[in-house]
Design goal:
Length: 353
């Protein structure tokens, strides 16, 4: 059995929104990827690999919601419809889809928290996907803490996904050629976002939080030696804030980084997957391919990622953890009814049940 924890889907509501916006921006690309929205094509992709199932995650909102006239209420309603349709797809095709991950109107922390709670408690989502933008979405700020608190209380996962494009404020214009904004910029956003969260004390406040970072955790495993140096270089910070923050943390920075969960979406690079597994250990790595975002509708990413794991991880028990066991243990995909986790939230979450 292989459970792919990170595959993308374009819901009917999101697709209609893109079509109505006249195929501007990313819509021109997304609408050509039939495996994103044609369920016959998508199910044939899954069925091509024996013992393989997918967890469905939404397209990052800023790539889909391209009509500025939508307004906040229209945005919230669109996200709600997307989540309801994703829940219906996962329910209709359980043999292919092991579960799904909800979207949120993330720019509004209160609305995002409310929709995240509704999706997990009422619709059966395994968790939520939050967009990462190191410049424009400061997830480490206090206003987002109720969202993290709610997901911890509900025992739900938080999938962290980068999304910036050259048009995003703060993106350097030099990143546009060769799609460096994605190839390099996305790993940067993941790394910065995760580090800000951890160094802001996210795990001290929420020790049971299940943060899952895309693309093997960005640069974290590959630069692990540099993170080890942070406590020794605190006096190099002219503001003095680093030294103060380190004093508030209960553990060294490197210890928090190892608490992160990550996937294996490294796109045919077994040496990179090996680095990821060596740093995080097999019990914190879950099989994830990023399908169907390749030139073959998923038929490159899926077998390439399977091969990456098999080549990078020799131990069969460790492979089983990555391919399936961790998803079962961490996400509860075999638990059936998630009702025990849908408890009443404390009032400090500011979310409505």
């Amino acid at each position: 059995m292989k459970v792919d924890i990170w595959t993308h889907i374009l819901s009917p509501s999101y697709l209609r929104h893109l079509e109505g916006a006249g195929q501007r921006g990313p819509g021109a690309f997304l609408s050509t990827q039939r495996a994103l929205y044609d369920m016959d094509v998508r199910r044939s992709l899954v069925d091509a690999y024996p013992g393989y199932r997918q967890i469905l995650a939404p397209i990052p909102g800023p790539h889909v919601i391209v009509d500025p006239s939508l307004g906040q209420s229209g945005l919230v309603e669109l996200v709600r419809r997307n989540n309801e349709e994703m829940a219906e797809l996962a329910s209709r095709y359980p043999e292919q889809f092991a579960g799904w991950v909800a979207a949120t109107p993330l720019a509004d922390p209160d609305a995002a928290t409310e929709e995240a709670v509704r999706s997990v408690r009422e619709l059966g989502a395994l968790g939520v996907q939050l967009e990462e933008d190191a410049n424009n979405l400061p997830l480490h700020e206090e206003r987002y803490d109720p969202l993290f608190a709610a997901m911890e209380q509900l025992d739900a996962g938080i999938w962290l996904h980068p999304y910036r494009t050259p048009a995003t404020p703060g993106s350097p214009p030099e990143a546009a050629p060769f799609i460096l904004w994605q190839v390099v910029g996305w790993t940067f956003d993941t790394t910065i976002t995760v580090c800000r969260l951890m160094f802001a004390g996210i795990y001290d406040r929420h020790p049971k939080l299940k943060l899952i970072a895309h693309h093997g955790g960005g640069l974290i495993p590959h630069l692990s030696g540099r993170f080890e140096l942070i406590p020794h270089a605190a006096k190099l910070d002219p503001t003095g804030s680093l030294e103060e923050q380190l004093e508030r943390l209960k553990q060294p920075p490197s210890a928090y980084l190892k608490m992160l969960y990550v996937d294996t979406a490294m796109f045919g690079a077994p040496h990179a997957v090996k680095c990821v597994v060596d740093f995080f250990d097999p019990d914190h790595v879950m099989f994830g391919s990023d399908a169907p975002f390749d030139t073959k509708g998923g038929h490159y990413f899926v077998p390439a990622t399977i091969s990456d794991v098999e080549e990078a991880v020799a131990d069969h028990a460790a492979r089983a953890m990555i391919f399936h066991d961790n998803a079962d243990r961490i996400l509860g995909i075999k638990s059936g009814d998630r009702e025990p986790a849908r408890q009443t939230l404390s009032t400090h979450t500011r979310a409505q049940p």
